[in-house]
Amino acid sequence: MLKLFVYGTLKRGYENHNRFCRGALEIREAQVRGRLYDGPSFPVLEVRGEDVLACGTTDPLADVDTQDRLSGRVGKYPRPVPEGTRTGAWGAVYGELLTFDDPESRLPAIDRLEGFRPDGPSLYRRVLVPATVGDGHELAWVYTLEAPHIKHRRIVSGCWPQHPEGSEAVR
To answer: Cα–Cα distance between 6 and 30 in angstroms, integer?
Structure first.
């Protein structure tokens, strides 16, 4: 099973959800540790390097195998995602954890949408990180910022979309 954490236009109710995520076996509220920014009409996410357990490849089945193989490590994840954020802090980024049973068709399509190219320049990179779901953690793939020049304002609340009073200028 493929687990994917989404925090922007792939969430329920947004334009890319029906096109790319319809048929998900399960959708649950979740969060990851990171920093969320407004990009040009979509959000961008930064995660701590220490939280990245693997980087995505061009082989969806190998990536699912990596997720399964490393899932035992998530139970040992020592630090839950902190609640709230401050300038410069790593805080909670809120989204949805989607579970799919068709990674061979699903992952390449979403990789293309996100501009993820493992062997070349990319808008995003796909990484495996712990996601907090309820009281526990699960490993999930997430698309993170690879092109820092596109981030505009920090979304302090960790939830996209955000009203202007809930964001701060990037320094």
So the answer is: 9
